[in-house]
Amino acid sequence: MSRAFVKELEDAVEELPDRPISPHPNLVTPEGLARIEAEVARLQQEHAAAHEANDRAALARAARDLRYWTARRASAQLVTVPSDRSKVHFGATVTVVRDDGRRQTFRIVGEDEADPAHGTLSHVSPLARALFGKDVGDTVEVANSQAEIVEIA
To answer: 93-152 has which fold?
Structure first.
């Protein structure tokens, strides 16, 4: 192998595949938008530090993640929570009782904010989609299971 070819390989910055971007509208809560902004700022610092340290692997990771979060910031649609809490909507906190007796409370948020283990549910999830527009006392069916809405906050 020629020395010139090896030098080209050494100088090449590894390109990582881009993170997939959801085709759904990028609805975000005010907290979600703040988290996106914080992530962009953190990644800009990380990218600069990796560039300064000439750490090609870290530079590639930071560049890929920065592209993702910059695109998410550009497409973010801030949704303010309506004052009417009689129906389930984006940003609402909904408590349901499943047909097996489990009581669960979720806040319906943007895709990047969602973490069901911590009580947040993506607005494009099957459960959230089934809940939208429903009232307390309504029952929804998701994945061969039923859930009754007992509270909307």
So the answer is: Chitinase A; domain 3 (3.10.50)
